[in-house]
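Budget justification aside, the reviewers requested a transparent look at the raw inputs and outputs of the sequence design task funded under Objective 1. We therefore reproduce one unedited record. The lines immediately below are the structure tokens for a 643-residue chain.
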């Protein structure tokens, strides 16, 4: 007979043995779980600069002995590498490992020192080195002051430094120099990093509140600690004009600002350069020496070609898709607002951009590689986000739209600051009407569309009376064509559109029994349906969203008008954002995908639908209950098509 376990710890070990290795490891990583059951774990420690491995308990015990001056030298067995002599190298203040002709210095682990003062001295130096001093670090300082750190806590403490912007930026640049490009290594999977990168929000905090109450005070603290490094960090939050506007850096000497702008011109990312233009022009009265830097930065952005495969805008688009897609995969930001997550993902994309600018990485094929690996997750995550922030869609990150966004923001810079520009050429560049001026590149409506963080902000522009009058007239016509909806579709993201217009469009579709004349092509049909779905989303018109579903069925049956199932899903995901309530949104999405799952399709189309379904449920787990029938139908279809 097998003896029964005599205590809870033994019972836990027996029961854990019944679970898969991954679940066992996850449970044992939880210190509270181990402490409750009286369990302890040991681990192997491998030194970064070598393949030398030691048992953690043995290594840390001997380090403590050395710090306590109990012995001048100790011996320790390496796993498969023989016996090593350990001692303190006083000259370099590090612990030295020697085995014959081999000598290594291991990282400073003074957190293991028996004396509180020495532990705190080490801690304060590391905090200054990595530029992080948030509430988490303050708790660690209190712990180190109170007692010696336990073996299992060492890696937890060191992980705090590994998830700091300075540490991550260094690792990324090293990976690019080695041309080691694995997405999992390029995007941290811990929320601590992103909180430290752009600031940690309070639940329910709006966009403007976040920049004023979090980014503003944070910018003052970061530049106080280290002016140049702090400026490099705070300008990463320039994906919205609120970022530069919120900065509290006016107390810095002009020479520090100029040094930063010299770096920004040579090595900065495009969003930080854009923020630098906006902030710098508003400060020309105080720092006139910024003018030549601002002019060159603006010319750099103006000269960007969004169609160039290895251009900066195409690279930036790729990096944002990569980071957003990876965050969708890991789900670490799932409970944060879409605009905060997008601020954080764009900031990290800019960190990647800076690293690539300084390394010889070929980028011409980068966009295709990113879209193949994370494009689908990016698109589906953005469609899910539209339930909360319906005015920003996934195609708004494309390079052509980024260029229009950048030009629009430069054209809207502080007028008072722009009037202080002394260079005639720069004044003409900013305010003139010549072919090379910024104004000449402003494109309607693209330069006026919502920015990446503005999907949840209502448009402020009021629809002109003439536009409104023409819109009412076109929607009430006896016969409707795609042209009848053009004004409504073009106005949806530019002006405040009253829900009454969405209802007029829905009534019109019902009135003509969804029979629209003069649909010339599948492309025209797709853009019309996507536009009407956008109107439904922005106005939260559930009625129009339903009519879009019906209209799409009718249009897809028309001879010569082929709207693929993939595009039909895109239209449905946009229209779903008419439902702000999560349960209702899930039902609408589930109903649409279930309908598509019963269509007669090729094996390839069925595989694509199944792929979308799996990723959608990963991004929004509540879809499991509303897509069960669709999943069963697709699997049955795949089974029959493979037979």
């Amino acid at each position: 007979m097998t003896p029964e376990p005599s205590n809870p710890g033994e019972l836990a070990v027996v029961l854990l043995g019944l679970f898969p290795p991954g679940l066992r490891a996850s449970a044992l990583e939880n210190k509270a779980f181990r402490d409750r059951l009286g369990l302890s774990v040991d681990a192997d420690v491998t030194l970064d600069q070598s393949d030398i491995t030691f048992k953690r308990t043995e290594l840390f015990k001997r380090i403590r002995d050395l710090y306590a001056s109990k012995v001048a030298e100790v011996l320790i067995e390496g796993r498969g590498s023989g016996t090593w002599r350990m001692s303190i190298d006083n000259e370099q203040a590090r612990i030295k490992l020697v085995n014959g002709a081999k000598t290594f210095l291991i990282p400073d682990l003074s957190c293991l020192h028996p004396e509180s003062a020495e532990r705190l001295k080490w801690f304060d130096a590391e905090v200054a080195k990595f530029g992080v001093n948030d509430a988490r670090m303050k708790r660690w300082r209190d712990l180190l002051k109170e007692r010696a750190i336990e073996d299992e806590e060492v890696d937890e403490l060191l992980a705090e430094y590994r998830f700091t912007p300075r540490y991550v930026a260094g690792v990324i640049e090293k990976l690019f120099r080695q041309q080691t490009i694995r997405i999992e290594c390029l995007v941290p999977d811990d929320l601590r990093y992103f909180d430290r990168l752009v600031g940690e929000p309070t639940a329910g905090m709006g966009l403007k509140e976040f920049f004023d109450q979090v980014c503003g005070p944070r910018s003052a603290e970061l530049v106080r600690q280290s002016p140049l490094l702090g400026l490099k960090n705070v300008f990463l939050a320039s994906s919205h004009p609120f970022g530069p506007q919120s900065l509290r850096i006016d107390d810095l000497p002009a020479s520090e600002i100029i040094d930063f702008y010299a770096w920004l011109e040579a090595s900065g990312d495009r969003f930080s350069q854009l923020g630098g233009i906006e902030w710098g022009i508003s400060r020309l009265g105080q720092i006139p020496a910024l003018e030549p830097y601002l002019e060159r930065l603006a010319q750099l952005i103006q000269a960007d070609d969004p169609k160039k495969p290895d251009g900066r805008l195409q690279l930036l688009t790729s990096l944002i898709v990569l980071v957003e897609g990876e965050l969708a995969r890991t789900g670490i930001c799932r409970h944060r607002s879409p605009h905060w997550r997008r601020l954080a993902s764009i900031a990290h994309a800019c960190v990647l951009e800076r690293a690539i600018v300084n390394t010889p990485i070929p980028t011409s094929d980068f966009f295709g590689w990113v879209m193949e690996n994370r494009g689908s997750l990016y698109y589906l995550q953005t469609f899910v986000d539209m339930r909360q922030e319906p005015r920003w869609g996934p195609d708004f990150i494309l390079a052509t739209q980024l260029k229009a966004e950048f030009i629009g923001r430069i054209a809207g810079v502080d007028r008072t600051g722009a009037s202080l520009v002394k260079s005639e050429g720069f004044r003409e560049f900013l305010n003139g009407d010549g072919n090379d001026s910024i104004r000449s590149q402003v494109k309607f409506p693209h330069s006026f569309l919502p920015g990446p963080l503005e999907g949840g902000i209502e448009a402020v522009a009021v629809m002109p009376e003439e536009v409104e009058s023409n819109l009412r007239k076109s929607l009430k016509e006896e016969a409707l064509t795609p042209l009848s909806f053009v004004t409504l579709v073009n106005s949806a993201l530019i002006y405040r559109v009253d829900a009454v217009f969405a209802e007029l469009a829905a009534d019109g579709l019902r009135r003509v029994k969804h029979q629209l004349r003069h649909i010339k092509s599948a492309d025209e049909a797709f853009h019309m349906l996507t536009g009407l779905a956008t109107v439904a989303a922005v106005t939260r018109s559930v009625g129009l969203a339903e009519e879009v579903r019906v209209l799409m069925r009718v249009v897809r049956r028309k001879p010569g008008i082929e709207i693929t199932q993939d595009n039909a899903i895109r239209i449905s995901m946009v229209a779903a954002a008419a439902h702000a309530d999560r349960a209702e949104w899930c039902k609408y999405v589930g109903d649409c995908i279930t309908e598509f799952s019963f269509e007669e399709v090729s094996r390839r189309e069925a595989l694509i639908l199944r792929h979308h379904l799996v990723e959608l449920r990963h991004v929004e787990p509540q879809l499991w209950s509303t897509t069960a029938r669709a999943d069963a139908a697709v699997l049955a279809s795949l089974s029959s098509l493979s037979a």
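Strands lie at 44-46, 53-55, 73-78, 82-89, 94-99, 102-106, 461-462, 495-496. Residues 99 and 470 are 86 Å apart (CA to CA). Computational costs for records of this kind are itemized in the attached budget.
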